[in-house]
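Standup notes, structure subgroup. Blocker cleared on the magnesium ion input:
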Amino acid sequence: MKRVNRKENKQERWQTKRAGGDFVDKLYAYRNLHAHALFSSLGRLVASRFSSAMTIVVLAIAISLSSGFYILVANLQQLAGNLEASNQISLFLKDEVSEARANKFADSIRKNPDIQDVKLITKEQALAEFQAYSGFSEAVKALKKNPLPAVIQVLPKNAFENEQALEVLLDDFKRTAEVDFAQMDMQWVKRLQSIMELARRGVTLLSLLLGIGVLFITANTIRLELHNRRDEVVIAKLVGATNGFICRPFLYSGFWIGFFSGVMAWFIVTIIMLFLKQSVENLSRLYDDSFHLLFLGFAETLSLLFISSVLGILGSWIVLHFQLRQLKPE
Amino acid sequence: MLQFDHVSMRYPAAGDVLRNVSFHLERGEMAFLTGHSGAGKSTLFKLIAVIERCSRGQVLLDGENLNQVKDRRIPFIRRKVGLIFQDYKLLQDRTVFDNVALPLVIAGYGHHEVARRVRAALDKVGLKNKEKKYPAVLSGGEQQRVGIARAVVNKPPLIVADEPTGNLDPELSAEIMHLFEQFQQVGVTVLIASHDISLITQMNHRILKLDHGQLVAS
Ligand SMILES: Nc1ncnc2c1ncn2[C@@H]1O[C@H](COP(=O)(O)OP(=O)(O)OP(=O)(O)O)[C@@H](O)[C@H]1O
Ligand SMILES: [Mg+2]
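Run returned:
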Protein backbone atom coordinates (compact mmCIF):
# COMPACT_ATOMS: atom_id res chain seq x y z
CA MET A 1 0.00 0.00 0.00
CA LYS A 2 2.74 2.37 0.97
CA ARG A 3 4.63 1.44 -2.15
CA VAL A 4 1.64 2.29 -4.33
CA ASN A 5 1.35 5.69 -2.67
CA ARG A 6 4.94 6.51 -3.35
CA LYS A 7 4.44 5.52 -6.93
CA GLU A 8 1.43 7.74 -7.28
CA ASN A 9 3.38 10.73 -6.02
CA LYS A 10 6.01 10.07 -8.61
CA GLN A 11 3.33 9.64 -11.19
CA GLU A 12 2.04 13.09 -10.37
CA ARG A 13 5.46 14.63 -10.70
CA TRP A 14 5.84 12.86 -14.02
CA GLN A 15 2.53 14.36 -15.03
CA THR A 16 3.08 17.95 -13.92
CA LYS A 17 3.86 20.70 -16.42
CA ARG A 18 1.74 19.13 -19.10
CA ALA A 19 0.42 21.56 -21.66
CA GLY A 20 -3.08 22.75 -20.92
CA GLY A 21 -2.56 22.91 -17.18
CA ASP A 22 -4.15 26.29 -16.83
CA PHE A 23 -5.65 28.95 -18.98
CA VAL A 24 -2.43 30.78 -19.85
CA ASP A 25 -0.78 27.52 -20.82
CA LYS A 26 -3.74 26.74 -23.02
CA LEU A 27 -3.50 30.11 -24.65
CA TYR A 28 0.19 29.60 -25.35
CA ALA A 29 -0.47 26.12 -26.65
CA TYR A 30 -3.17 27.45 -28.95
CA ARG A 31 -0.85 30.13 -30.28
CA ASN A 32 1.92 27.58 -30.77
CA LEU A 33 -0.40 25.33 -32.73
CA HIS A 34 -1.48 28.16 -35.01
CA ALA A 35 2.03 29.42 -35.53
CA HIS A 36 3.10 25.89 -36.34
CA ALA A 37 0.32 25.42 -38.86
CA LEU A 38 0.84 28.84 -40.42
CA PHE A 39 4.54 28.42 -40.99
CA SER A 40 4.56 24.75 -41.81
CA SER A 41 1.95 25.30 -44.51
CA LEU A 42 3.91 28.23 -45.90
CA GLY A 43 7.07 26.13 -45.77
CA ARG A 44 5.44 23.33 -47.73
CA LEU A 45 4.15 25.79 -50.29
CA VAL A 46 7.72 26.99 -50.81
CA ALA A 47 9.05 23.44 -50.81
CA SER A 48 6.71 22.46 -53.64
CA ARG A 49 7.39 25.69 -55.54
CA PHE A 50 6.64 24.37 -58.97
CA SER A 51 3.21 22.90 -58.40
CA SER A 52 2.17 25.69 -56.04
CA ALA A 53 3.27 28.27 -58.61
CA MET A 54 1.25 26.57 -61.32
CA THR A 55 -1.87 26.46 -59.18
CA ILE A 56 -1.44 30.05 -58.11
CA VAL A 57 -0.96 31.27 -61.69
CA VAL A 58 -4.10 29.49 -62.86
CA LEU A 59 -6.08 30.92 -59.95
CA ALA A 60 -4.60 34.38 -60.45
CA ILE A 61 -5.66 34.39 -64.10
CA ALA A 62 -9.19 33.38 -63.16
CA ILE A 63 -9.36 36.02 -60.45
CA SER A 64 -7.82 38.72 -62.64
CA LEU A 65 -10.34 37.95 -65.38
CA SER A 66 -13.24 38.68 -63.11
CA SER A 67 -11.66 41.67 -61.40
CA GLY A 68 -10.45 42.94 -64.79
CA PHE A 69 -13.95 42.85 -66.19
CA TYR A 70 -15.20 44.46 -63.04
CA ILE A 71 -12.86 47.42 -63.37
CA LEU A 72 -13.59 47.67 -67.11
CA VAL A 73 -17.30 47.97 -66.41
CA ALA A 74 -16.62 50.43 -63.61
CA ASN A 75 -14.70 52.60 -66.07
CA LEU A 76 -17.38 52.42 -68.73
CA GLN A 77 -19.92 53.26 -66.10
CA GLN A 78 -18.00 56.30 -65.09
CA LEU A 79 -17.99 57.33 -68.72
CA ALA A 80 -21.71 56.79 -69.09
CA GLY A 81 -22.38 58.44 -65.76
CA ASN A 82 -21.05 61.73 -67.11
CA LEU A 83 -23.83 61.74 -69.64
CA GLU A 84 -27.22 62.48 -68.30
CA ALA A 85 -30.05 60.68 -69.82
CA SER A 86 -33.22 62.60 -70.50
CA ASN A 87 -36.16 62.33 -72.78
CA GLN A 88 -35.51 65.66 -74.36
CA ILE A 89 -36.44 65.97 -78.02
CA SER A 90 -34.80 68.48 -80.33
CA LEU A 91 -36.81 69.82 -83.24
CA PHE A 92 -34.63 71.37 -85.93
CA LEU A 93 -36.84 73.81 -87.83
CA LYS A 94 -36.81 74.30 -91.56
CA ASP A 95 -34.75 77.20 -92.82
CA GLU A 96 -37.74 79.05 -94.27
CA VAL A 97 -39.62 79.11 -90.94
CA SER A 98 -39.60 82.69 -89.63
CA GLU A 99 -38.93 83.57 -86.02
CA ALA A 100 -42.55 84.58 -85.44
CA ARG A 101 -43.81 81.35 -86.87
CA ALA A 102 -41.32 79.45 -84.78
CA ASN A 103 -42.62 81.19 -81.66
CA LYS A 104 -46.16 80.37 -82.55
CA PHE A 105 -45.21 76.77 -83.14
CA ALA A 106 -43.46 76.60 -79.77
CA ASP A 107 -46.56 78.01 -78.08
CA SER A 108 -48.73 75.40 -79.71
CA ILE A 109 -46.48 72.65 -78.37
CA ARG A 110 -46.58 74.23 -74.92
CA LYS A 111 -50.30 73.71 -74.85
CA ASN A 112 -49.90 69.97 -75.10
CA PRO A 113 -50.57 68.61 -71.57
CA ASP A 114 -47.94 65.90 -72.06
CA ILE A 115 -45.17 68.41 -72.42
CA GLN A 116 -43.36 69.72 -69.43
CA ASP A 117 -41.14 72.35 -70.98
CA VAL A 118 -40.47 73.96 -74.33
CA LYS A 119 -37.57 76.16 -75.21
CA LEU A 120 -36.97 77.94 -78.48
CA ILE A 121 -33.45 78.67 -79.59
CA THR A 122 -33.54 81.06 -82.50
CA LYS A 123 -31.00 80.99 -85.29
CA GLU A 124 -29.22 83.98 -83.77
CA GLN A 125 -29.10 82.49 -80.31
CA ALA A 126 -27.78 79.25 -81.73
CA LEU A 127 -25.04 81.07 -83.54
CA ALA A 128 -24.09 83.08 -80.45
CA GLU A 129 -23.91 79.94 -78.41
CA PHE A 130 -21.83 78.20 -80.98
CA GLN A 131 -19.44 81.14 -81.15
CA ALA A 132 -19.11 81.18 -77.40
CA TYR A 133 -18.41 77.51 -76.85
CA SER A 134 -16.86 76.07 -79.91
CA GLY A 135 -13.78 78.28 -80.21
CA PHE A 136 -14.56 78.81 -83.88
CA SER A 137 -15.81 82.39 -83.42
CA GLU A 138 -13.48 83.88 -86.04
CA ALA A 139 -14.41 81.28 -88.59
CA VAL A 140 -18.08 81.88 -87.95
CA LYS A 141 -17.70 85.62 -88.40
CA ALA A 142 -16.32 84.93 -91.83
CA LEU A 143 -19.54 83.22 -92.84
CA LYS A 144 -21.93 85.30 -94.90
CA LYS A 145 -25.03 83.47 -93.82
CA ASN A 146 -25.98 81.88 -90.53
CA PRO A 147 -25.88 78.15 -91.29
CA LEU A 148 -27.49 77.08 -88.03
CA PRO A 149 -31.18 76.16 -87.83
CA ALA A 150 -33.55 77.30 -85.11
CA VAL A 151 -34.17 74.60 -82.57
CA ILE A 152 -37.05 73.87 -80.25
CA GLN A 153 -36.15 71.78 -77.25
CA VAL A 154 -39.10 69.80 -76.00
CA LEU A 155 -39.07 68.07 -72.64
CA PRO A 156 -41.96 65.64 -72.30
CA LYS A 157 -43.50 64.90 -68.92
CA ASN A 158 -41.95 62.08 -66.94
CA ALA A 159 -44.98 59.98 -67.74
CA PHE A 160 -43.19 59.40 -71.00
CA GLU A 161 -40.76 56.93 -69.52
CA ASN A 162 -42.29 54.53 -71.93
CA GLU A 163 -40.15 54.34 -75.07
CA GLN A 164 -43.05 53.62 -77.37
CA ALA A 165 -45.05 56.65 -76.29
CA LEU A 166 -41.98 58.76 -76.90
CA GLU A 167 -41.58 57.30 -80.37
CA VAL A 168 -45.17 58.21 -81.19
CA LEU A 169 -44.58 61.77 -80.01
CA LEU A 170 -41.41 61.96 -82.02
CA ASP A 171 -43.17 60.72 -85.15
CA ASP A 172 -45.90 63.35 -84.68
CA PHE A 173 -43.26 66.07 -84.58
CA LYS A 174 -41.53 64.71 -87.65
CA ARG A 175 -44.76 65.06 -89.63
CA THR A 176 -45.22 68.73 -88.68
CA ALA A 177 -44.60 71.20 -91.53
CA GLU A 178 -42.19 73.43 -89.60
CA VAL A 179 -39.92 70.60 -88.56
CA ASP A 180 -37.03 69.63 -90.73
CA PHE A 181 -35.63 67.00 -88.48
CA ALA A 182 -36.58 65.64 -85.04
CA GLN A 183 -34.28 63.75 -82.75
CA MET A 184 -34.49 62.22 -79.35
CA ASP A 185 -31.40 63.69 -77.77
CA MET A 186 -30.03 61.14 -75.41
CA GLN A 187 -31.51 57.98 -76.64
CA TRP A 188 -28.11 56.42 -77.14
CA VAL A 189 -27.18 57.24 -73.55
CA LYS A 190 -30.17 55.30 -72.38
CA ARG A 191 -29.21 52.43 -74.59
CA LEU A 192 -25.67 52.57 -73.28
CA GLN A 193 -26.98 52.54 -69.76
CA SER A 194 -29.02 49.45 -70.31
CA ILE A 195 -26.01 47.83 -71.94
CA MET A 196 -24.00 48.78 -68.85
CA GLU A 197 -26.60 47.20 -66.63
CA LEU A 198 -26.31 44.07 -68.68
CA ALA A 199 -22.51 44.18 -68.46
CA ARG A 200 -22.69 44.60 -64.70
CA ARG A 201 -24.83 41.53 -64.39
CA GLY A 202 -22.51 39.73 -66.75
CA VAL A 203 -19.56 40.54 -64.52
CA THR A 204 -21.42 39.30 -61.45
CA LEU A 205 -22.28 36.08 -63.20
CA LEU A 206 -18.77 35.64 -64.55
CA SER A 207 -17.27 36.29 -61.12
CA LEU A 208 -19.58 33.74 -59.60
CA LEU A 209 -18.54 31.13 -62.15
CA LEU A 210 -14.84 31.92 -61.84
CA GLY A 211 -15.21 31.93 -58.06
CA ILE A 212 -16.62 28.43 -58.17
CA GLY A 213 -13.75 27.48 -60.45
CA VAL A 214 -11.24 28.90 -57.98
CA LEU A 215 -12.96 27.01 -55.18
CA PHE A 216 -12.65 23.70 -56.94
CA ILE A 217 -9.11 24.22 -58.19
CA THR A 218 -8.04 24.94 -54.60
CA ALA A 219 -10.03 21.96 -53.39
CA ASN A 220 -8.30 19.72 -55.86
CA THR A 221 -4.86 21.04 -54.94
CA ILE A 222 -5.55 20.42 -51.28
CA ARG A 223 -6.94 16.99 -52.05
CA LEU A 224 -3.65 16.09 -53.73
CA GLU A 225 -1.69 17.45 -50.79
CA LEU A 226 -3.83 15.47 -48.38
CA HIS A 227 -3.25 12.37 -50.45
CA ASN A 228 0.52 12.94 -50.54
CA ARG A 229 0.63 13.39 -46.80
CA ARG A 230 -1.61 10.51 -45.96
CA ASP A 231 0.98 8.73 -43.81
CA GLU A 232 1.67 11.87 -41.87
CA VAL A 233 -2.01 12.37 -41.16
CA VAL A 234 -2.43 8.80 -39.98
CA ILE A 235 0.64 8.90 -37.75
CA ALA A 236 -0.36 12.26 -36.30
CA LYS A 237 -3.75 10.78 -35.47
CA LEU A 238 -2.09 7.84 -33.77
CA VAL A 239 -0.08 10.05 -31.46
CA GLY A 240 -3.12 12.04 -30.44
CA ALA A 241 -3.70 14.76 -33.02
CA THR A 242 -7.18 16.23 -33.05
CA ASN A 243 -8.97 16.81 -36.33
CA GLY A 244 -8.38 20.48 -35.72
CA PHE A 245 -4.64 19.99 -35.59
CA ILE A 246 -4.70 17.96 -38.78
CA CYS A 247 -6.97 20.35 -40.65
CA ARG A 248 -5.24 23.55 -39.66
CA PRO A 249 -2.18 23.33 -41.93
CA PHE A 250 -4.37 22.43 -44.88
CA LEU A 251 -6.69 25.33 -44.19
CA TYR A 252 -3.68 27.61 -43.98
CA SER A 253 -2.39 26.14 -47.26
CA GLY A 254 -5.72 27.02 -48.81
CA PHE A 255 -5.45 30.49 -47.33
CA TRP A 256 -1.94 31.04 -48.71
CA ILE A 257 -2.86 29.76 -52.14
CA GLY A 258 -5.92 32.03 -52.26
CA PHE A 259 -4.06 35.01 -50.85
CA PHE A 260 -1.10 34.76 -53.21
CA SER A 261 -3.44 34.25 -56.16
CA GLY A 262 -5.26 37.41 -55.12
CA VAL A 263 -1.99 39.35 -54.89
CA MET A 264 -0.90 38.10 -58.28
CA ALA A 265 -4.31 38.88 -59.81
CA TRP A 266 -4.02 42.43 -58.45
CA PHE A 267 -0.66 42.82 -60.17
CA ILE A 268 -1.99 41.41 -63.45
CA VAL A 269 -4.93 43.83 -63.48
CA THR A 270 -2.85 46.80 -62.41
CA ILE A 271 -0.12 46.15 -64.97
CA ILE A 272 -2.70 45.87 -67.76
CA MET A 273 -4.28 49.14 -66.58
CA LEU A 274 -0.91 50.86 -66.61
CA PHE A 275 -0.46 49.71 -70.19
CA LEU A 276 -3.80 51.25 -71.12
CA LYS A 277 -3.39 54.40 -69.05
CA GLN A 278 -1.43 56.44 -71.60
CA SER A 279 -3.73 55.86 -74.53
CA VAL A 280 -6.84 56.36 -72.44
CA GLU A 281 -5.50 59.65 -71.18
CA ASN A 282 -4.66 60.81 -74.68
CA LEU A 283 -8.18 60.04 -75.70
CA SER A 284 -9.58 61.76 -72.64
CA ARG A 285 -7.69 64.94 -73.42
CA LEU A 286 -9.62 65.18 -76.67
CA TYR A 287 -12.81 65.18 -74.60
CA ASP A 288 -11.78 68.00 -72.27
CA ASP A 289 -10.26 65.66 -69.64
CA SER A 290 -13.62 64.55 -68.32
CA PHE A 291 -12.51 60.96 -68.01
CA HIS A 292 -9.83 59.40 -65.83
CA LEU A 293 -8.94 55.74 -65.76
CA LEU A 294 -10.13 54.03 -62.58
CA PHE A 295 -7.73 51.56 -60.97
CA LEU A 296 -8.55 49.00 -58.31
CA GLY A 297 -9.01 51.19 -55.25
CA PHE A 298 -8.07 50.43 -51.68
CA ALA A 299 -11.41 48.93 -50.70
CA GLU A 300 -11.54 46.96 -53.93
CA THR A 301 -8.04 45.61 -53.40
CA LEU A 302 -8.92 44.59 -49.88
CA SER A 303 -12.04 42.79 -50.98
CA LEU A 304 -10.13 41.13 -53.82
CA LEU A 305 -7.61 39.72 -51.34
CA PHE A 306 -10.31 38.88 -48.84
CA ILE A 307 -12.49 37.04 -51.31
CA SER A 308 -9.64 35.06 -52.83
CA SER A 309 -8.33 34.07 -49.38
CA VAL A 310 -11.79 33.00 -48.28
CA LEU A 311 -12.25 30.98 -51.45
CA GLY A 312 -8.94 29.24 -50.74
CA ILE A 313 -9.91 28.41 -47.18
CA LEU A 314 -13.36 27.29 -48.28
CA GLY A 315 -11.94 25.09 -51.01
CA SER A 316 -9.70 23.25 -48.61
CA TRP A 317 -12.44 23.05 -46.00
CA ILE A 318 -14.68 21.25 -48.49
CA VAL A 319 -12.02 18.63 -49.14
CA LEU A 320 -11.20 18.17 -45.46
CA HIS A 321 -14.85 17.86 -44.59
CA PHE A 322 -15.41 15.04 -47.04
CA GLN A 323 -12.07 13.27 -47.06
CA LEU A 324 -10.62 13.43 -43.57
CA ARG A 325 -13.02 10.88 -42.18
CA GLN A 326 -11.74 8.35 -44.66
CA LEU A 327 -8.23 8.72 -43.30
CA LYS A 328 -8.40 6.37 -40.34
CA PRO A 329 -5.36 4.74 -38.84
CA GLU A 330 -6.59 1.44 -40.21
CA MET B 1 -5.26 1.71 -14.93
CA LEU B 2 -6.07 -0.68 -17.76
CA GLN B 3 -8.82 -3.24 -17.56
CA PHE B 4 -10.10 -5.76 -20.11
CA ASP B 5 -13.48 -7.20 -19.26
CA HIS B 6 -14.59 -10.25 -21.27
CA VAL B 7 -13.37 -8.64 -24.44
CA SER B 8 -14.01 -10.27 -27.79
CA MET B 9 -12.93 -8.90 -31.12
CA ARG B 10 -14.27 -10.17 -34.38
CA TYR B 11 -13.10 -9.16 -37.83
CA PRO B 12 -15.67 -10.06 -40.46
CA ALA B 13 -12.84 -11.41 -42.60
CA ALA B 14 -10.85 -13.30 -39.95
CA GLY B 15 -13.48 -14.34 -37.40
CA ASP B 16 -12.82 -14.00 -33.67
CA VAL B 17 -9.33 -12.63 -33.15
CA LEU B 18 -9.76 -12.08 -29.39
CA ARG B 19 -12.03 -14.27 -27.29
CA ASN B 20 -13.29 -13.38 -23.86
CA VAL B 21 -10.07 -11.69 -22.73
CA SER B 22 -10.05 -10.36 -19.17
CA PHE B 23 -7.17 -8.89 -17.20
CA HIS B 24 -6.35 -5.84 -15.12
CA LEU B 25 -3.14 -3.83 -15.01
CA GLU B 26 -2.57 -1.72 -11.91
CA ARG B 27 -1.12 1.75 -12.16
CA GLY B 28 2.66 1.42 -12.30
CA GLU B 29 2.55 -2.26 -13.18
CA MET B 30 4.68 -3.76 -15.92
CA ALA B 31 3.59 -6.79 -17.90
CA PHE B 32 4.55 -8.72 -21.00
CA LEU B 33 2.16 -10.01 -23.60
CA THR B 34 3.30 -13.07 -25.53
CA GLY B 35 1.79 -15.53 -27.92
CA HIS B 36 2.35 -17.02 -31.31
CA SER B 37 2.23 -14.92 -34.42
CA GLY B 38 -1.40 -14.13 -35.18
CA ALA B 39 -2.47 -14.74 -31.57
CA GLY B 40 -4.00 -11.26 -31.43
CA LYS B 41 -1.39 -9.18 -29.62
CA SER B 42 -1.43 -6.27 -32.05
CA THR B 43 -5.21 -6.41 -32.15
CA LEU B 44 -5.35 -6.08 -28.37
CA PHE B 45 -3.18 -2.97 -28.62
CA LYS B 46 -5.45 -1.51 -31.27
CA LEU B 47 -8.29 -1.69 -28.77
CA ILE B 48 -6.25 0.24 -26.21
CA ALA B 49 -5.49 3.00 -28.72
CA VAL B 50 -9.11 3.03 -29.93
CA ILE B 51 -7.94 2.26 -33.43
CA GLU B 52 -10.60 -0.43 -33.27
CA ARG B 53 -13.48 -0.95 -30.88
CA CYS B 54 -14.19 -4.39 -29.47
CA SER B 55 -17.24 -6.36 -30.51
CA ARG B 56 -18.09 -7.61 -27.03
CA GLY B 57 -17.05 -6.83 -23.46
CA GLN B 58 -15.37 -3.59 -22.45
CA VAL B 59 -11.96 -1.98 -22.25
CA LEU B 60 -11.47 0.51 -19.43
CA LEU B 61 -8.59 2.98 -19.38
CA ASP B 62 -8.37 5.08 -16.23
CA GLY B 63 -11.99 4.07 -15.57
CA GLU B 64 -13.12 5.34 -18.97
CA ASN B 65 -15.00 2.88 -21.17
CA LEU B 66 -13.20 2.98 -24.51
CA ASN B 67 -16.14 1.39 -26.29
CA GLN B 68 -18.30 4.38 -25.58
CA VAL B 69 -15.93 7.34 -26.01
CA LYS B 70 -16.95 9.87 -28.58
CA ASP B 71 -14.72 10.34 -31.63
CA ARG B 72 -13.76 13.82 -30.43
CA ARG B 73 -12.34 12.34 -27.26
CA ILE B 74 -10.12 9.75 -28.98
CA PRO B 75 -7.09 12.03 -29.53
CA PHE B 76 -6.98 12.80 -25.83
CA ILE B 77 -7.07 9.12 -24.95
CA ARG B 78 -4.21 8.48 -27.36
CA ARG B 79 -2.18 11.17 -25.65
CA LYS B 80 -2.41 9.11 -22.47
CA VAL B 81 -1.03 6.06 -24.25
CA GLY B 82 2.54 5.97 -25.53
CA LEU B 83 2.24 3.70 -28.53
CA ILE B 84 5.23 1.83 -29.94
CA PHE B 85 4.52 0.08 -33.20
CA GLN B 86 5.81 -3.13 -34.67
CA ASP B 87 6.53 -1.24 -37.93
CA TYR B 88 7.78 1.95 -36.15
CA LYS B 89 5.44 4.26 -38.11
CA LEU B 90 7.98 7.05 -38.50
CA LEU B 91 7.67 9.95 -40.91
CA GLN B 92 10.32 9.29 -43.53
CA ASP B 93 10.60 12.89 -44.67
CA ARG B 94 11.17 14.29 -41.19
CA THR B 95 14.28 14.23 -39.09
CA VAL B 96 14.57 12.11 -35.96
CA PHE B 97 14.09 15.27 -33.93
CA ASP B 98 10.86 16.21 -35.72
CA ASN B 99 9.53 12.68 -35.45
CA VAL B 100 10.05 12.61 -31.71
CA ALA B 101 8.70 16.14 -31.36
CA LEU B 102 5.38 15.34 -33.04
CA PRO B 103 3.36 14.44 -29.91
CA LEU B 104 4.63 17.59 -28.18
CA VAL B 105 3.81 19.81 -31.14
CA ILE B 106 0.36 18.26 -31.25
CA ALA B 107 -0.11 19.01 -27.56
CA GLY B 108 0.94 22.61 -28.25
CA TYR B 109 4.23 22.86 -26.37
CA GLY B 110 6.51 25.82 -27.13
CA HIS B 111 9.83 25.57 -28.97
CA HIS B 112 12.11 25.46 -25.98
CA GLU B 113 10.09 22.93 -24.07
CA VAL B 114 9.86 20.75 -27.18
CA ALA B 115 13.60 20.89 -27.79
CA ARG B 116 14.41 20.15 -24.17
CA ARG B 117 12.10 17.18 -23.92
CA VAL B 118 13.00 15.73 -27.29
CA ARG B 119 16.71 15.82 -26.44
CA ALA B 120 16.04 14.20 -23.07
CA ALA B 121 14.02 11.42 -24.70
CA LEU B 122 16.63 10.83 -27.41
CA ASP B 123 19.30 10.76 -24.76
CA LYS B 124 17.36 8.08 -22.89
CA VAL B 125 17.23 5.77 -25.92
CA GLY B 126 20.87 6.47 -26.83
CA LEU B 127 20.28 8.47 -30.00
CA LYS B 128 21.44 11.84 -28.79
CA ASN B 129 23.69 12.50 -31.77
CA LYS B 130 21.23 11.32 -34.44
CA GLU B 131 18.60 14.02 -34.06
CA LYS B 132 19.31 15.56 -37.47
CA LYS B 133 19.28 12.26 -39.35
CA TYR B 134 16.37 10.94 -41.38
CA PRO B 135 14.80 7.57 -40.45
CA ALA B 136 15.79 6.05 -43.80
CA VAL B 137 19.50 6.22 -42.95
CA LEU B 138 19.05 4.58 -39.55
CA SER B 139 19.23 0.87 -38.80
CA GLY B 140 16.07 -1.02 -37.82
CA GLY B 141 17.06 -0.95 -34.18
CA GLU B 142 17.71 2.77 -34.27
CA GLN B 143 14.36 3.43 -35.91
CA GLN B 144 12.75 1.29 -33.23
CA ARG B 145 14.35 3.48 -30.59
CA VAL B 146 13.16 6.65 -32.32
CA GLY B 147 9.68 5.16 -32.03
CA ILE B 148 10.25 4.54 -28.33
CA ALA B 149 11.51 8.08 -27.77
CA ARG B 150 8.41 9.42 -29.51
CA ALA B 151 6.15 7.27 -27.33
CA VAL B 152 7.66 8.45 -24.05
CA VAL B 153 8.41 12.09 -24.88
CA ASN B 154 4.96 13.22 -23.79
CA LYS B 155 5.29 11.31 -20.49
CA PRO B 156 2.14 9.25 -20.87
CA PRO B 157 0.82 7.28 -17.89
CA LEU B 158 0.60 4.12 -20.01
CA ILE B 159 3.17 2.78 -22.47
CA VAL B 160 2.11 0.08 -24.88
CA ALA B 161 4.90 -1.44 -26.98
CA ASP B 162 4.37 -3.88 -29.82
CA GLU B 163 7.60 -5.89 -30.29
CA PRO B 164 9.89 -3.04 -29.25
CA THR B 165 12.96 -5.26 -29.37
CA GLY B 166 12.11 -7.19 -32.51
CA ASN B 167 15.04 -5.69 -34.40
CA LEU B 168 17.58 -5.30 -31.65
CA ASP B 169 20.54 -7.48 -30.69
CA PRO B 170 20.27 -9.26 -27.31
CA GLU B 171 22.38 -6.69 -25.54
CA LEU B 172 20.42 -3.71 -26.81
CA SER B 173 17.16 -5.59 -26.21
CA ALA B 174 18.04 -6.02 -22.57
CA GLU B 175 19.01 -2.36 -22.37
CA ILE B 176 15.70 -1.24 -23.85
CA MET B 177 13.77 -3.52 -21.50
CA HIS B 178 15.62 -1.93 -18.59
CA LEU B 179 14.64 1.44 -19.95
CA PHE B 180 11.01 0.38 -19.78
CA GLU B 181 11.64 -0.76 -16.21
CA GLN B 182 12.90 2.73 -15.44
CA PHE B 183 9.66 4.19 -16.71
CA GLN B 184 7.80 1.73 -14.54
CA GLN B 185 9.85 2.88 -11.56
CA VAL B 186 8.45 6.39 -11.90
CA GLY B 187 4.89 5.09 -11.97
CA VAL B 188 4.19 4.49 -15.64
CA THR B 189 2.13 1.43 -16.52
CA VAL B 190 3.90 -0.62 -19.18
CA LEU B 191 2.57 -3.37 -21.44
CA ILE B 192 5.01 -4.96 -23.88
CA ALA B 193 4.29 -7.55 -26.55
CA SER B 194 7.28 -9.77 -27.18
CA HIS B 195 8.30 -13.10 -28.61
CA ASP B 196 11.57 -13.13 -26.74
CA ILE B 197 10.62 -15.71 -24.09
CA SER B 198 14.10 -16.07 -22.63
CA LEU B 199 14.45 -12.34 -22.10
CA ILE B 200 11.05 -11.80 -20.53
CA THR B 201 11.11 -14.81 -18.23
CA GLN B 202 14.42 -13.57 -16.94
CA MET B 203 12.92 -10.18 -16.11
CA ASN B 204 10.49 -11.28 -13.48
CA HIS B 205 7.36 -9.36 -14.44
CA ARG B 206 3.84 -10.48 -15.01
CA ILE B 207 3.34 -12.38 -18.29
CA LEU B 208 0.06 -12.48 -20.20
CA LYS B 209 -0.10 -15.22 -22.81
CA LEU B 210 -2.47 -15.21 -25.75
CA ASP B 211 -3.27 -18.33 -27.72
CA HIS B 212 -5.58 -18.00 -30.71
CA GLY B 213 -7.19 -14.99 -29.12
CA GLN B 214 -7.65 -16.51 -25.70
CA LEU B 215 -5.76 -15.51 -22.60
CA VAL B 216 -4.18 -18.74 -21.37
CA ALA B 217 -1.93 -17.37 -18.64
CA SER B 218 -1.68 -14.16 -16.70
N1 LIG C 1 -7.72 -5.41 -39.98
C1 LIG C 1 -7.87 -6.74 -39.95
N2 LIG C 1 -8.84 -7.32 -40.64
C2 LIG C 1 -9.00 -8.67 -40.62
N3 LIG C 1 -8.23 -9.47 -39.90
C3 LIG C 1 -7.25 -8.96 -39.16
C4 LIG C 1 -7.01 -7.55 -39.14
N4 LIG C 1 -5.97 -7.31 -38.32
C5 LIG C 1 -5.58 -8.51 -37.86
N5 LIG C 1 -6.33 -9.50 -38.36
C6 LIG C 1 -6.20 -10.91 -38.05
O1 LIG C 1 -6.17 -11.04 -36.68
C7 LIG C 1 -5.27 -12.05 -36.28
C8 LIG C 1 -4.36 -11.55 -35.19
O2 LIG C 1 -3.54 -10.54 -35.72
P1 LIG C 1 -2.51 -9.73 -34.84
O3 LIG C 1 -1.84 -8.75 -35.69
O4 LIG C 1 -3.22 -9.23 -33.65
O5 LIG C 1 -1.50 -10.87 -34.40
P2 LIG C 1 -0.19 -10.72 -33.55
O6 LIG C 1 -0.38 -11.51 -32.32
O7 LIG C 1 0.16 -9.28 -33.39
O8 LIG C 1 0.89 -11.42 -34.49
P3 LIG C 1 2.45 -11.04 -34.71
O9 LIG C 1 3.19 -11.59 -33.54
O10 LIG C 1 2.78 -11.72 -35.97
O11 LIG C 1 2.52 -9.57 -34.79
C9 LIG C 1 -4.53 -12.49 -37.52
O12 LIG C 1 -5.00 -13.76 -37.90
C10 LIG C 1 -4.89 -11.48 -38.56
O13 LIG C 1 -5.08 -12.11 -39.80
MG1 LIG D 1 1.62 -8.00 -34.04
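Discussed briefly. The pocket of magnesium ion (ligand 2) is lined by residues B 41-42, 86, 162 (CB under 6 Å).
Next: hand off to the docking folks.
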